[in-house]
Specification:
The protein is α+β, with helices and mostly antiparallel strands. It is 47% helix and 13% strand. A 5-stranded mixed beta barrel has the order 1-2-3-5-4.
Amino acid sequence: MARAALDVAHSLLKRRKFYKVLLVLEPNEEIYRDNFDYYLTLGIACLYLGDVGNARKYFGNAREIKLTDISLLLGQAAIFLRRGETGRAVQYYLEVLDLDPSNSVAEKAMEFIKKNAQTDEISKWVDSGKIEAFYPPLGVNPDVVRNGVLAGLLLGAVLSVCLIFIPQRNRKISMVGPRANLTNLELSSDETKHAQEEDLSGTVAYYLLDNAAIVKSYEDARIYFQDWRDNACQVEINRLLNSNASLAIKQKANILKTYLSPPTFDSLLDNYTYAQVAEDPRLYLDCYVAWSGRIANAESYAGGAWGADLLVGYETMQTVEGRVRLFFAPAPQPSIDTTKAVRVLGKVTMQGNEIVIEGRSVYQPMDGISVKN
């Protein structure tokens, strides 16, 4: 069982899931007290997370067990390089080259130090994250390989379908594959351990979460983002921003929010119902919804803006699930027949206690009724 935990950590390290490495290994320190690989793996994970203090501690523990390991020497050299202690870094890189004369990381680091030891270029590399080029290499990320293969297979399938069906109907292709690299938004070891804000004075926390729930919510948001489920990602961001999560985690959640993209009718993967949004609007703010119904009280505003009441669920004129205010900015103004059913895609906002949908696009078929997907 203990060995299995280290195996899992190795897999997570190759997949760049650094914070999860800490979650798996740190509770097992008593079991692995004299295990070199345990401390080395933790040290490398902390180094990539930017937690240099703990990386140095774990590398020190590993060095007490074994001195001549290339990954350990590269890790310790990188710490000295980050701090501008190039003389100490060179000593470690020379040790690496004694063990492995063709080690490319050590060779590149020595060349870098030779050119930049007296400049502020080292600080720039640390700030930009480029310094990771001199960290112990992790090998090929199996997730990237998998995503590449899946994306290739999916693209081939989509192209095949398009070749068959394009003459009959133009189809919109949903976004697939990996998105922006969010490595810089991974939680550090300290952020994971202290996910709750200690001082809530002057703060209103609508969702009181324990440490594990905060970490899970944040990591779920990152996973949803990579899966193109921006609505689900936005829900987790809202949960964190309105919770007792630490300021550091809220700041990262706000940064993650800037990566989200508006959907189309075809690419909207998580479409929340009116009942869900009405029950807890705060949780769904800035999510996009596609709701069907009928238009009432339509009016045009100065400058070309347009507004109306959307009677959600009333497309068959039998049941009204709810009434929300619908607003379209001046460009473009929608062309809507108010006598027919309509399906609207828009972003959930609030004005006071009232739900307002900022319209993005409209679908209205010829018969005006068959608008639900």
